[in-house]
Write the structure tokens for this entry.
Amino acid sequence: MNVVHILGNKGAEVVSVQPHRTLGEAARTLAEKRIGAVVVTGADGGLLGILSERDIIKALGTDGAAALETPVSRAMTAKVVTCRPDTSVDDLMEIMTSGRFRHVPVVDGGRIAGIVSIGDVVKHRVAEIEAESRAMRDYIAMA
């Protein structure tokens, strides 16, 4: 299975913010959308970075409440690890585990095609295991 299968189930909607927005605005977006990360895009829609809850907490820990008035560009992760729609789910799990992050933007042809969270991966794997289990039970029942 590939990342495109996960996006097919969850959808390809990507919530983004621009780098000049404040961390407070980004935090409100995360809360309203009930998500853990947003991609940071330029005026052309190109990927500039990613901002996660962890990035906001790190900024708050360093600068206190004043951090909420600073631009997203100061706290975002600029070196974003991405995957492609044809990346295998197993490879994606390895990328997430070795990088110790929970969100990976999906890029196709230089454009953002979606974002996958560790929760999306777990949900996909559980569904896959349940389908295998059903198939085994059906096979045994027919034997």
